[in-house]
Design goal:
Length: about 170
């Protein structure tokens, strides 16, 4: 077997020695592209994006509000947006047959807790993008955003605060 590789090596050496034109070197795109798909089974809802208030600086008590229609973040009092990517939570659902679906956002405040600590903040006044009743065709997907108001205390401890909330979809 080693004998059969010799002509290939000799041919490669001859090609290099003759000064043949170099081939273009492929270069990978940066950053790499991502492929993504969301599978949604009828009569289900999946989270596409979490709600994110971004990075906030605090001098006195105030609020940060995410608008579910525009994605805009506004602040009041001594709360100032200093970066990050604020965004409403986004959900996707699908209906099995033609139906009217009812979307329910939380009507009670949510307590979020500092990671690694016991300090808390409140998220309240959840708002829905568009109508809470959607008329869907058979096997039609629907997407919606949820915004809310974050209540920040004057002496809020620095850190990452997290919590979870439920969105309820009623399929009649």
């Amino acid at each position: 077997m080693p004998f059969s590789r010799f002509p290939l090596l000799a041919g490669l050496a001859l090609l290099l020695a003759t000064g043949a034109p170099a081939e273009a070197v492929p270069i990978a795109a940066s950053p790499k592209a991502k492929a993504r798909a969301s599978l949604i089974f009828p009569l289900t809802v999946v989270r596409k994006n979490d709600m994110d208030f971004g990075y906030l600086a605090v001098t006195t008590a105030g609020t940060a509000v995410i608008n579910p229609n525009t994605g805009a973040l506004t602040t009041t009092g001594g709360v100032v947006s200093v970066g990050g990517t604020p965004m409403p939570a986004t959900f996707i659902g699908a209906a099995r047959s033609s139906a009217v679906v009812n979307i329910k956002v939380p009507n009670q405040p949510l307590t979020i807790t500092r990671v690694g600590g016991t300090e808390t903040m409140t998220v309240r006044d959840f708002t829905l993008q568009g109508s809470d009743k959607r008329t869907l065709a058979r096997l039609e997907a629907f997407e919606f955003n949820v915004g809310a108001t974050l209540v920040v205390g004057a002496n809020q401890v620095e850190g990452l605060y997290t919590g979870t909330f439920d969105i309820i979809i009623q399929y009649p």
